[in-house]
Amino acid sequence: MSDAVQRLQQVRERIAAAEKEAARQTGDVILVAVSKTFSADDIRPVIEAGQRTFGENRVQEATSKWPALKAEFPDLELHLIGPLQSNKAKEAVALFDAIETVDREKIAAALAAEMKKQAKAPKLYVQVNTGSEPQKAGIEPREAVAFVARCRDVHGLAIEGLMCIPPADENPGPHFALLEKLAREAGVDKLSMGMSGDYELAVRFGATSVRVGSAIFGSR
Questions:
Q1: pLDDT tens-digit map of 115-172
Q2: What is the pTM of this model?
Q3: DSSP string for residues in 68-98
Q4: Which of 214, 210, 188 is nearest to 201 (CA)?
Q5: Closest CA to 49 of 79, 15, 12
Q6: Which of 18, 53, 107, 158 would suit a FRET pair with 97, their CA atoms being 20 to 30 Å apart?
Q7: ∠ at Cα 214 (16, 217), nearest 5°?
């Protein structure tokens, strides 16, 4: 058994324990295994151990390894969890099953056009910059609810959830609580929050998916 597979099992056990502690149903939370920078050979044992949902940060990198893996394992679900440029919307819609980083009008319009052209409907999340960090992608919290409404009403996009990446040097709890509050106000059900260092806390705050990379694949 590879180290990654052992770590995958440990992460699954810790998610299940966090679900139980939060009085949630076992299996409520989807584990998104973040495989950015890792090769297809690194990823395959984790797939063979039963993991089916993966996250990648860059469209170009994902395009180099995932089409062959998805052909080999047709039930995989691939999430884009890094910033999306509008000129990559075509490739993103073609490859990804979920895009978690919708954060501005230009991206919403580009995705709407490509989804119509390709007759594809990836799941969509709005990324919220809960810490208002200037260097980080995501829409400002005060604009998030109105932006979700515009995605629906202006662009015809079905937004199913919100996503955030709290500031690295802050307690993530208040950021998770803010995202949950905004999701309720926006009328969406899914919360993508929590990474390798804080995914158990995110489960307690209502995460429906957690994005875990280094705790599974090791340091990059």
A1: 999 999 999 999 999 999 999 999 999 999 999 999 999 999 999 999 999 999 999 9
A2: 0.97
A3: HHHHHSTT-EEEE-S---GGGHHHHHHH-SE
A4: 210
A5: 12
A6: 18
A7: 90
